[in-house]
Design goal:
The protein is an alpha+beta fold. The chain has two domains: 272 residues, 2-Layer Sandwich (Beta Polymerase, domain 2), CATH 3.30.460; 60 residues. The protein has nine helices and seven strands. β1 and β2 form a beta hairpin.
């Protein structure tokens, strides 16, 4: 069995019990005089199957709750509402400092997003969460304590607190990706940074952004589904403003990811354009020097003929050839230099 913890509040939002034994959970969730939360961390399938039989949990919801990967969604069943979401944080341990002189093997500029699955069963007076051990449950409990006045409104306050913590984590993850975009933009035009490093970081950034968008975009459906059930159940209207604010935050995160996607695309295109421009510069320089070198080659080839010509075998012929080579080479050098070919 995984870790099991619980909290029980009275009608005024004051905690009256903690860590109820597992055998008493089903009875606790049936009580109408208290508000309860049961947390299963790293739960085994048999743990949920036992609760499913006692509480009438839908088998498909139980299967989704224990699955390692599941799309965020909200579903309503006869006795409960079920939803799955993902919290997000980021690992900044591999970030580079963005110094222009860094090598390609130094730390990457792209943050790695970490996702943690959370599933929840919502009852009229109770909430069961099935989560990954990495999810910061202390932040969730603190959020409920900070809004203890709302707990008197019922289980909707618990659900709102959970979703609010999750969406706040999405905000922080998007902010980290936004900072990463700015870091890549800062080194994009720095010729001391290898182009393959920018390519690698931009590709990794796009990959992390895609992962984040997969959990952010469905949040609109999840919040809408929970909000609709909250209103149909006739819950306290005091929570309406909180849920509307939560939905607004979800929309803002979604729009932010859309903006970041456009910015990453622009970085890709700009990086390719810069590589083409640098290649053209190299080709111009090679062409310019090749033209300069071709002049003395042509002159020495002419004076190296095995037939008599004016100046053949004389000192002034040698001087004339040198003057032609130096003069023509200097003229080409000056002309190419003015055109910034060399």
């Amino acid at each position: 069995m995984g870790s099991v913890s619980s909290l029980v509040w009275d009608g005024r939002g004051a905690v009256i019990s903690r860590n109820v034994p597992f055998a008493e959970i089903s009875e606790l969730l049936r009580r109408d005089d208290v508000l309860s939360w049961v947390d299963l961390s790293g739960a085994e399938p048999q743990d949920l199957e036992r609760l499913a039989g006692e509480l009438g949990l839908d088998p498909m919801a139980v299967e989704d709750a224990v699955a390692h990967v599941e799309r965020p969604k909200a579903l309503r069943y006869a006795t409960h509402t079920f939803f799955t979401v993902y919290s997000a944080d980021f690992d900044a341990s591999g970030l580079g400092n963005g110094a222009g002189g860094g090598s390609a093997d130094e730390g990457s500029l792209a943050a790695r997003i970490r996702l943690h699955k959370i599933s929840a069963f919502v009852f009229p007076r109770g909430l069961i969460t099935v989560r990954a051990p990495e999810f910061d449950v202390e932040a969730l409990v603190q959020r409920w304590e900070d809004n203890a006045d709302l707990l008197g409104s019922g289980v909707g306050a618990l659900v709102h607190g959970l979703l609010d913590v999750v969406v706040d984590g999405h905000f922080e993850a998007v902010q980290s990706l936004d900072d990463t975009v700015e870091g890549i933009e800062d080194v994009l035009f720095d010729e001391r940074v290898l182009a393959r490093r920018v390519q690698r970081d931009t590709y990794r950034l796009r990959k992390e952004l895609v992962r984040l968008r997969r959990i952010v975009l469905p949040m609109r459906e999840v919040v809408n589904g929970v909000l609709r059930h909250h209103r149909e159940a006739g819950s306290s209207p005091e929570l309406d403003a909180s849920y509307d604010d939560l939905y607004d935050h979800v929309l803002r995160v979604t729009e932010w990811t859309e903006s970041l996607r456009d910015m990453v695309t622009a970085i890709f295109e700009t990086n390719l354009s810069l590589q083409d421009a640098r290649l053209n510069t190299v080709m111009k320089k090679l062409t310019g020097w090749a033209a300069i070198i071709a002049v003395p080659t042509a002159v020495t080839g002419f004076f190296g003929q095995n037939v008599p010509y004016p100046g053949y075998g004389t000192w002034w012929g040698f001087v004339a050839s040198v003057v032609v080579m130096v003069g023509a080479g200097a003229a080409l050098y000056i002309a190419f230099k003015r055109k910034e070919w060399i």
